[in-house]
Amino acid sequence: MNEGHPTEPSRVTEPRDVAEPSRPTEPCHVTETRAAYDTVAIDYASLLEGELARSPLDRALLGHFAELVGLEGGGPVVDVGCGPGRVTGHLGTLGLDVSGIDLSPGMVAEAQRRHPELDFRTGSLAALDLPDASVTGLVAWYSIIHTPPELLPEVFVELHRVIRANGLLLLAFQAGGFSVRHEQAYGHAVTFEAHRHDPDGVAAQLADAGFRVTVRTERVPQDYEKTPQAFLLGRRG
């Protein structure tokens, strides 16, 4: 009833079908990934704590990235898909003005607990809530492994959008060119897919998105790893 207006005489009308307004649907892989990492967040953070201390190559690549950001005059850096903030925190110790974004609220809460001095928020790799050309550097450390290969080009276009001219993008991912369906991880029953991307394909997609790849390296699996690990550093054109 509309208050403040006279009531009209009642009329009998024929029922009609009213179309529901269309609503954007979230891709299944995004929903699954968020749910899985919300479930495993605490155990994931504990199990990977100290992982960088055992990975000299990882630290060297992150250090190289940090130095290049400094040579560009500094500026904001974003760790996209930051998880519990282990890489974000490391980049902070290297003197970078860094913040973290992750799809999983559970991971963001864990990152905030472990690194209260840094800023973390939820967000999607494919649709970042950041202005155009607003960051000097962006790190996606194993963040693209849940994006199907055919969707990577639009992700790289989005990353290109937020990085300023001559800014930096550092990727780390599991290599192989195949996908694996998981039903359990980090001691929990979860469902998600992990994609072992082909480094040649990723490098070509980065070039198509407007990046110039300047560093590319791979290492053999170590400890619990089952596939080679790939690392690509690019500059925005």
In the CATH hierarchy, the third-tier topology is known as Rossmann fold
Question: How many strand units?
Answer: 9
Q: What's the CATH superfamily, by name?
A: Vaccinia Virus protein VP39
Q: Overall mean pLDDT score?
A: 88
Largest sheet: 7 strands, mixed
Q: Specify Rg, calculated over alpha carbons.
A: 22 Å
Q: Tell me the distance between the termini.
A: 59 Å
Describe, in plain words, how this protein is organized in 3D.
With 237 residues, the protein is α/β, with parallel strands linked by helices. It has a single domain, classed as Vaccinia Virus protein VP39 (Rossmann fold). 32% of the residues lie in helices and 29% in strands. The protein contains six helices and nine strands. Strands 3-2-1-4-5-9-8 form a seven-stranded mixed β-sheet, sandwiched between helices. The longest helix is centred in the N-terminal third of the chain and has 20 residues, at 28-47. The chain starts with 27 loop residues before the first helix and ends with a strand.
Question: Which key terms come to mind for this protein?
Answer:
single chain, alpha/beta, 7-stranded mixed sheet, two-stranded antiparallel sheet, 6 helices, 32% helix, Rossmann fold
